[in-house]
Model the fold of this input.
Amino acid sequence: MFLTITTTGSADRPATDLGFLLHKHPDKVQQFSTSHGTAHVLYPEADAQRCTAALLLEVDPIALVRRSRGKGRGGAPDSALGQYVNDRPYAASSLLAVALRSVFASAMKGQCTARPELVAQALPLRIEVPVLPARGGTELVDKLFRPLGWTVRADPVPLDETFPEWGDSRYVRLVLEGECRLAEALRHLYVLLPVLDDAKHYWVAPDEVDKLLRAGEGWLEDHPEQRVIVGRYLARRGSLTRQAMERLAESDDVAAEELDNAVDEEADTEDKPVPLAVRRREAILTVLRSAGAARVLDLGCGQGQLVGALLKEGQFTEIVGVDVSMRALHEARRRLRLERMSERQSERVRLVQGSLAYTDSRLKGYDAAVLSEVVEHVDPARLPALEYAVFGAARPRTVVVTTPNVEYNVRWESLPAGQVRHADHRFEWTREEFRQWARGVAARHGYEVSFGPVGPDDPEVGPPTQLAHFRITGDGSGRPEDSGSSREGRGPEGGSSAADSRASMSGKEVAA
Done:
């Protein structure tokens, strides 16, 4: 199996600069040992006007079988004949993707010590893969590569040219053309070759999530076929797919501060639209001001939009943003420009990594906590754990929860019927379901709760977002006697009681 990468140039910028980026000299033929064969890098043509680098992988079928035995799901075919007679030596697959990462490791990372200025340059590239398995056909090939800026040509390979009536095989000859940084192009190939093949020659372990996110940084977050890419790359392992999607999921306030990934949200007046995300923050700030809160937790802070709004008001003297995603926290730090803040301002804010599925001693003692567009991203079976971590263990005097009102979804014509607003939402509650859950939480943990709309309150379907304001009763020390007996407050799929969650979480405190 092989692929070629071609670029064109001029006297001012010779095409042979490709050799610097790939860290492979055009005048040499180089060999590299891999776990399943030998990789060769050579240049069929190399001059100032045009340069082509070829990666040829010679697969050792015997080594492939021996190393893949016992790998189970995600490994090589299991049938006795299929182990030795298959398309792995000829068709581009995860074998070629691994060879790309191994042979062109520095190029994929965007490193070029000899000519560092070349790394940031977009080159006119032509990439050819003569035989590529395409489970999903040419249409899927186009859906995967075209959003990344490539001009895509995927010609089906006939089963047998002598017998055209047999039709086409599941293989295509792929040609990609476009201007792109070489590092980005290599990462596209590294992820999407095995995605189109829909198989891997090795066991897909948890570290594959990190590999995917590193290679997909900067393009996978917004790819329209993100779910297909993640699921196939991770061999449809549900737990890993969910983990990757959670880490990829952006805060609901990201894209132009519009509602999730549904449609544009307009205000009551056409000439002055107010995004729903802005209305949510305004509603939350109103509650926190009225509660007299000074020390506030933003739980599931995402990229820090609410943290930024809190920093603008002097009432809030200590603000802690918590998120499970380190990538989101890095983006929040960048957006908030923490490194450029004055010392006095920076002392007011902290960003910490943590999971709301476990109790965390760092979250105790605060005046208020906010769960803005968070609960719907949690698996229903884990809601009791989140409930206890926030209301039972951290126990702030005020808690604000916002979540979508699924009844309002019919008001967006571009949101397909029955579809949730964001691909990562595990559920979306009706107004009655949300109130039942919130009242159950309040009863179990010694809070009182009231509700309010966020956005236009439609007389038929209610507001787009619903808000619950929890206030601790009494001095905050007392709790209901039978905190685990209530049946209220479960997610749409049910789940164990809060008392069960406390027992199961014993000894699982999050490390500071």
User: Anything to note?
Assistant: The longest strand covers residues 168-180.
